[in-house]
Write a structure and sequence with these properties.
It is a single chain. By secondary structure, the protein is mostly beta strands. It has one domain (16-210). The protein is 0% helix and 53% strand. It contains no helices and 11 strands. It has strands at 33-37, 45-52, 73-82, 85-96, 104-105, 110-119, 125-140, 149-165, 169-182, 185-199, 208-210. Strands 1, 2, 3, 4, 5, 6, 7, 8, 9, 10 and 11 form an 11-stranded antiparallel beta sheet that branches. It is globular, with a radius of gyration of 20 Å. The N and C termini lie far apart (43 Å).
Length: 211
Amino acid sequence: MVQDCQPDPGRPSILQKPPYGPPNEVRWDLKLAYAEFGDPESSWISLRVGRQLLNYNNTIVSNSEWRNQGRSYDAAAVNLHYDRYRLGIFAASAVIPEISGITHHQAGNDIYGLYGHIDGPLGYSTLEPFVLWRLQPGVAVENAGAIKSGKQDEKAYGFRWKGLLGHALDYSYEAIVERGSDGPNTIRAWAQTFGSGSLASKLAVWPKLRY
């Protein structure tokens, strides 16, 4: 079945139907299948190999659980843990969902990364530096004449700083720089995000307010 997925300007976006088909519609799939050696919380080194979830950073590498089929990866991930220091080292390829059956990743569509975690560098806080490398065999290329697609080679460098001030105010700051290429086009980008929240502990319901 083919459905016209063009937005209807006369209807609010919350009432519009998403396109049918993956990843918005997946009837069944093999979500997880991995072997794990060691405990990442108690062992100084652990290894997980196979189809798994990667969620080192909710805004950079995550599971996208808001979709019908959340993202999983065919990956190998080593986690090092010593005292208040952690380091994740991984090589992964995102699984491309299909309507049903055991889906597979796309050859050459890979992401490699180093993701650090340091507890308590300043008060009740954590520092998470990271380096990521993304490769794709074919991406759409804009403003390149007759060239319609090209290979992506992108590297990202950044950190996230999050913590707690007092007893009820938390915060998170993240900065990232991206460099690389999409075919003949150069990638030069950067981004920053900041968020905080407070717990209204004197109220009966105790809502948490995000800013």
